[in-house]
Here is the input.
Amino acid sequence: MIELLTAPTPNGWKISIMLEECGLPYSLRWIDIGRGEQFAPEFLAVSPNNRIPAIVDHAPADGGEPIPVFETGAILVYLAEKSGRFLPTEARGRKAVLEWLFWQVGGLGPMLGQHGHFKLYAPERLPYPTERYRAEALRLYGVLDRRLAEHAHLGGADYSIADMACFPWVQTWKAQEIPLAEFGHVQAWYDRLKERPALRAGMAVGRDRLNRRPAADAETRRILFGIKE
Here is the structure.
């Protein structure tokens, strides 16, 4: 059994999508990041960077003690290897999937996160950082579009953990006011993927817990954004 410690965010949904897609049994342990539960010692023992999501594999392949895993890229690779799915074993295919997975964890997610913060949550609307991160977000959408112009999925012909990593962040396009129609290959990929039943099930995890106004009160702002007022 996989224990998923998570909250309803794009990073959290990456892992619930993967668990649904590969059919591994899992249980949910909610971490209320607006109340600071990510700083509790028991969570830090699993995720020392105090970020969701994290997992604990209570039935590891070696039959030993439970294995904790933090950071979404590491979790996706761990689950792919455990299930034998969504990560090629041959060198070229594996290389491509890992390239695009780490492109997401190092670029698309962080840059869209910063753009979303300054556009949607910052207490002051500051033109320079907002436009700086918007320009980078649009550049990354262009990179994604060019890749998908040549391949059905990010890793190549087959759906993989790289697609699962990117989808929840692209799903924020409306809130971030990204002109998705200008990136036709991304839109076609997005429309195909959102019809997958397991992906939809993974994206539904925690929707009823979603805080659509995380900047509404000073204490939540302090916990989530480190803003002291």
Q: What stands out?
A: The two ends are 43 Å apart (CA to CA). Residues 91-121 form the longest helix (31 residues).
